[in-house]
Amino acid sequence: MLLRHTTDEVLERTALTVNPAKTCQPIGAMYAALGLHNCLPHSHGSQGCCSYHRSTLTRHYKEPVMAATSSFTEGTSVFGGQANLLQAIQTIFGVYNPDVIAVHTTCLSETIGDDLVQIIAKAVAEGKVPAGKHVIHCNTPSYVGSHVTGFSSMTKALVTYFADPSAEKSKKINLIPGWVEPSDMRELKCLAHKLGIEIVMYPDTSDVLDAPQTGKHEFYPRGGTTVDQIKSSGGSIATLGLGLSSSSAAVEALQTKCGVAGETLELPIGLQATDRFIDKLRTLAGVTVPDAVTDERGRLLDMIADMHQYVHGRRVALFGDPDQLVSLTEFLTLLDMKPVYIVTGTPTPQFENRIKTALGGNVPEAKIKAGAQADMYLMHQWIKQETVDLLIGNTYGKYIARDENIPFVRHGFPILDRVGHSYFPTVGYDGAMRLLEKILGVLMDRQDRDAPEERFELTM
Amino acid sequence: MADILRERERQVYRKGQQQAFQLDCEKQSVAGSVSQRACVFCGSRVVLYPIADALHIVHGPIGCASYTWDIRGALSSGPELHRLSFSTDLQEMDVVRGGEKKLYAALCELIDAHKPKAAFVYATCIVGVIGDDVEAVCKRASMEKGIPVLPVHSEGFKGTKKDGYRAACDALLQIVGTGPVDDVSPLSINILGDFNLAGETWMIRDYYSRMGVQVVSCITGDGRIDDIRRAHGAALNVVQCSGSMTYLAKSMEEKYGIPFLRVSYFGVDDLSKSLYDVARHFKDKEMLQRTQSMVREELQRIMPIIADYRRALEGKRAAIYVGGAFKAFSLVSALRLLGMKTVMVGSQTGNKDDYEQLRELCDEGTIIADDSNPLELSSFLEEKDVDVFIGGVKERPIAYKLGIGFCDHNHERKEALAGFEGMVNFAREVYGSVMSPVWRLTPRKRGNPLEVVK
Question: Taking the CA of residue A169 as centre, how many other CA atoms within 13 Å lie in the half-sphere pointing to its CB?
C-alpha cells in the first residue's frame, strides 16, 4: 500500500500540498507554443525548468520536445536576466533558425523582476531579431495559477502579438481549441472540415507532437499554426473558444484587439457538449450539418443506449484540469453515472458552478474542490470515507486505484504509462465513443476478474 | 552535419584529430541552447530521493515537486515515504511575505503525521531570491520534533546538477557520525553512489555478503537514516557514480579517516575489477578466494548467454549520452564485450579527467562531446550510422525518430543493468532494440517502403 499514510479523517491543511493535482505555469506555455509552426519555446529561467518540462512532455507524448533556456546563473539572479535573454535570442536565431521564439518566464525571472517587453524591444533595436522573425512572450509565474494558466496566457499572447486588426475580411471561423491532445485538435479540424467550414485554429499541436516516423529527426515538425494564419484570424467572422479556463483569455483578446465576435464553450467532450459545439459552428457559418456527422452522433447515442445498464448508478471520482472535468462530468451524468468527487489543483473561479451546471441538479452529494489543498491526498481521503466504482484522471491516479482496488481510466495530463492519448481523440462524437469504450472496458474487466466461477459469464 | 554552436567548438572532439586534446567542459551552457542539462535542485533531489524513511519536502512553487514526484525507480525494501510528493506550493502572497511560516507549518504537520527518521527541505530557485531563512526554520523544527531536519541548498540557478550533488552530500554529512558503531566489523564498507534503480543495490549487497563484507549503509539506494548515521564506522567507502558521491567520500576521509575506492558495477570487466579491489583492500586471503570463486561462478553462468548475443551484435555501432561521464567508461567496455563499437560518447557534466580517460578508452574517429544538444546528437547519430543509442528520457524519441535502437541507462531503466545479471539484461535490451524488425521498415535505412512497393 504505497499510500498507506492516507487517513480517512480530513483535517484542515493550510500550508501543505500532498501529491498535487496540478503543475506549474511554464509547462502549459511551452505546450501551447509547440502548437505554433516553426516555433522554439524558450524558458527564461534556470536550466532545470526547461529540462523538467521537456522530459514531462516527452514522457507524455513519446516525442522529441525542443525548447531552449536562458540558463540562469547566480549572477543572473543578482543582475537580472536581460543579458541571458539577449544572448539566447541571438544564439537561437543563429543556430536553430525558428520563425518564432516564444518566451515564457519562470518563478525566478518573475521574482527578480525581468521586464520581458523591454528586453524584447532591446533585442529588436539591437538587430538581434532577423527580418520576418518574431520574439513573443507571456508571463508565467509558477506561484500563480497552474499549468492551465500558462497555456491560456501563451494562447492569448499569440493573439496579442500576431492577430491583425486590418487583416482581410474572410468567412473563416477562428477556433481556439483549449488544452487538448494533438489527436483532439486533429479531430476538431476534421469535424469543421466535414461541416464544410474553413477555420483558423491555434494553437495546433497535431503533426508536432504526434509526428510520423520518417527516419528523420525534424527539429521543427511540419505541424503548427503559421504566423500568417494567426494574423489572418483578425479578419475572421467569429471566434469560438473551447474550454473556459484555457481559451477565454485569447477569445476576449481577439475581440478587443480585432473586433472579432467571440464566444467560449465548454470543451466538446461527451454528447451534449459536442452537440453545442457543432450547433454553434453550424449557426456561425450558416451551414447544415451533413449526414456523416449526424450519423456519428447516432452511433454514439446507440452505443450509450446499448450499454447504459452497465454504467448506471456507478460512483465516479475524477481529477485533473477544470475544462476537462466540467465536460467529463456532464458526459458521466448523461451516462447516469454519479460523479461524486471532483478535484482540480488549478485555482478556478466558478469551478463549483460550472460543475453544478454540468451535473444539472443530479448528484447533490457531489464534493467539489479547486485550488489550494485540492490535491490527490484529499481525493484519496474522500474515497476512503466512501469508495467509488471508477476513477478518472492522469497517471498519478494509479496509486489510489491500486490501493483502493478501483477501476481506473486514464485521462488528462500527464499520462506517463500508457499510449493512445496522442492518437485517439476524446472530443467529438467519436471521441465520446472511445471514452465510453474505455470506461466499459475497465468496469467489465473488473467484473470478469472478480466473478466467482459459477457467475463468470461468456456474454455480459 | 549540423552547425555546432561556434562557442561550442571546443566542447566537441573527434579522436584522431591533429589538434591536441583539449575539451572544454564544466562550462555554463550557452544561453539559448537546447541543452539536455538540468539544475542544482535536480541533482540534490535524485541523490537524496532514495532515502525511504525520510521526509522530502520541496519548498517552492508546485512545479519542482510535481516533476520529481516518484520519478525515479529507486526501490525500497521497507518504508516508501520517499515516493509521495510534499510541497509548500508557494503562492503569490508567500513570495511577497516570505514562505518561512508556511514551511514551518508544513514541516510540523508532516513530521507529526508520518514520524519520519529525518526530513530534507529542498530550497528551490525562488527561496534563494526571496531570502527565506530555511536554515533557521529547519533548526527550529528539528529542536521541537527531535529529528534531524536538514536544509538542502538546491536553488536551481546556483550551478549545475553537480552542485546539487554537493548540496545533497552536505546534508548527508550532517547525519553521518550520529549513530552507534560498536557492532561494525573491521571488514565493512559503505556503498556510495548506487541508487537501487530496478533493485541494483540489492544485487550488489548480495555480492558483498557472499564476499564476507559487512555493508554498513547504502547511500542512498534503499537508504535508511539510521544506517547513514552509522556510516562513519565503516572501514571503507566504495564509490560508484563518482560525480555525485566523491565529495562525500572525500569529506568522510578527512573527517573520519575512511579511505575510499572508486568502482563501477556495470559491465563484467569493471564489475569484477571493483569487487577484487575491495577484497584486496582488506588484505584478507579468504575474502579474496571467496571473491574469486564468486566471480568465476557468475562468469561461467553468464558468458555463454553473452556470447549468443555477441554473435548477433558483433560490429554494430553505439552512441552514448549520459549525465555523468564516469558511467560512460563502463558502458564503452560493456559494449565492447558485446562486440560493439562506441562511435560517439558524451555527457552533461563530465570534467577534464573524465574526458581524457574516455579519449584513451575510445577508438579512432569516436566523437566525444560535452553538454551536447539534440541537433548535434541527431547529426552525430546519422553521420556515424549508429545502431543503438544509450541515454535518458529526452534522448529516446530522437533515436526512435531516426530509426535507431535505444537503451535507457538512466532513471527509466526497468531492469537492473548493474552486476552480472545486469550485464545479461543489458545485452538482452540492446539486442532487442537493435534487432527489432521495426527498423527494417523505417525509411532512413531502407528508403520509403511504400515507394518501393510502387
Answer: 3
